[in-house]
Amino acid sequence: MTAADRTPFVLLHALPLDSAMWRAQARELTALGHRVLAVDQRGFGRAPLGSAPPSLDLAADDLAAALDRQGIDRVVLAGCSMGGYTALAFLRRHPGRVRALALLSTRAAADTAEAAARRAGFARAMRDPAARGRLVEATTPALLGATSRTRRPALLRDLLATVRAADPESVAWAQEAIAARPDGLDVLRATDVPALVVAGAEDELVSAAEARATADALPRGRLVVLPGVGHLPPLEAPGEVTRLLTALHRDATAVARTARREP
Question: Residue ranges of the AB hydrolase-1 domain (predicted)?
Fold first, then answer.
């Protein structure tokens, strides 16, 4: 196996979940011989939030430091929703470290003023014990597509339990960090690596047009729309996401081998 073949996967989770959302992909990719790092982002899972102001740049630098500690240079990077926004920040701040990119349920454009205001309101409600429970119950189902909600009630129950258990301050911090992110289209235009944009046909949070714009900005971007899937493809279509990531890794390996052979 060559160095390119051994390029690790890094998997970044959605808000307000943690690295466990990638459990199925991590298991299957590891069984195929890949090294997989499913990372808890700041404030989620086992990662402490700390006291720094909200910033996706900080989350990106956390990832770079974690890779440095493990002696990892370049990765196949996959991010879902918030994880995709962290991936964009990582591309901006640490160019050259991504061999291939997968963005799932991610828009490249910055928030509009209206969207940023909604996130600010969400953050305030998460910090209010009287409002928090109602907010979680009202908004969590929209993370899944209508098909998943109807046909997989256990998935919705598990998702609600995970969201209820998330640290409210971490969720608020992340919402504020996402609201402050810059437009990422320029970063994507400069990211000339094999790239995949995955959208759920039933995603109620990121539109089909936004997914298309993200894919079109990537020089080697490809858009895949998954039927019957909402905002969380790794949970709603785990096998298909694993197959897509495996194919992306093959593409990255082929590109690296070709580059080594060229004079």
Answer: 8-238
